[in-house]
Every structure is written in structure tokens, then in C-alpha cells.
Design goal:
The protein is built from two helices and ten strands, in the order H-E-E-H-E-E-E-E-E-E-E-E. The protein is an alpha+beta fold and about 170 residues long.
Length: about 170
């Protein structure tokens, strides 16, 4: 009673066929997804590369830390405000605010905030459908403070990127 079973009725044959087929389909899907772009380096700092080491200028971060700068950004009702919390800000000078999209550089926003009695302000609206990486600083880029505005929220804290304890980002 040794009947010959057709090959398609043997489960191990399907495993031998299915595993390479799934790997090929997944590989093609990864190539298609990666070729569509969208993964642009969202770090705007100029970076110097020497051999395998990448070095960025942390001078503006160190200056903000030394001056103990921090602020709160509020974005609501078509107005973006930056309110100083601590530190030695020059309140008469306008500030630059860079709101960077986490993955699409084409959607980045640059605003010039004008001084007001309470801080700085610009008439603009930031989309609340995704997070924003924030960077504020003076127009000469001598110092900068950074923060993150989460999706569907209207306020964020900005502070120096360098910490007191380690002196690193």
C-alpha cells in the first residue's frame, strides 16, 4: 500500500517554495519603498567628515548653555510666540525659528520672530499633524536652543542641546 502522493500535497514542499518567494517579494518591496525617497537627513548643521568621524560645530549650543537660555514656544490660532523663561536674551533683536519636519526637508519652515513686550512673535501657523524639530537662535547664529513640538500639541520647551553634566548632546 505504498501510494505515491503528488508533490503539492506534501507540506515540506510548500515550505521550500514559500520561504524564498516571500524573501524575494519582501526584497522587492524594500527596494520600492526606499527608492521613493523621503528619508532626507534632517540635520541642518554643517558636518565635517574626517575618515570615519563626523564633527559638528557645537559652539552655538555651548553659548546657549553658558547663557542659561531656555524658552517656551506656543503655536496656536495662526500665531507663533517664543516666550523667554531663563537666561540672558537680547530682547530688542529678532530671532530665527526653524521648524523642521522629521523626514521631509521640503516641508521645513523658517520664521523670523519680531520682538514684543513678552517675547517674540510671528503670524504663521505650524501644522499639527506631525511632530516638529525646533531650533531658535539669533540672526548671527551665535547661540541656539532646540526642542520638539509633538503632533497635536501647541507648546514646547526649548533649551540648549548640550547638557550641564556631560557637555554633550
Amino acid at each position: 500500500m505504498n501510494e505515491k502522493t503528488p508533490f503539492w500535497r506534501v507540506p515540506i514542499v510548500w515550505l521550500v517554495i514559500a520561504l524564498p518567494a516571500v524573501a524575494i517579494v519582501a526584497g522587492i518591496a524594500m527596494v520600492v519603498i526606499s527608492s521613493r525617497g523621503g528619508s532626507i537627513d534632517s540635520v541642518a548643521d554643517p558636518v565635517r567628515r574626517t575618515a570615519q568621524v563626523q564633527v559638528a560645530d557645537v559652539g552655538p549650543d555651548a553659548e546657549a548653555r553658558a547663557r542659561k537660555l531656555s524658552a517656551v514656544l506656543r503655536s496656536q490660532d495662526g500665531v507663533v510666540e517664543l516666550l523667554p523663561v531663563t537666561g540672558d536674551f537680547d530682547r530688542a533683536q529678532p530671532l530665527q525659528l526653524f521648524a523642521r519636519h522629521p523626514t521631509e526637508a521640503a516641508r521645513d519652515v523658517r520664521l523670523v520672530l519680531q520682538p514684543t513686550a513678552t517675547g517674540w512673535r510671528a503670524k504663521a501657523a505650524l501644522e499639527d499633524t506631525h511632530d516638529w524639530n525646533l531650533e531658535a537662535g539669533d540672526e548671527t547664529r551665535r547661540w541656539r536652543i532646540v526642542g520638539r513640538l509633538p503632533r497635536a500639541q501647541y507648546a514646547a520647551r526649548l533649551a540648549p542641546a548640550l547638557t550641564e553634566a556631560t557637555g554633550t548632546r
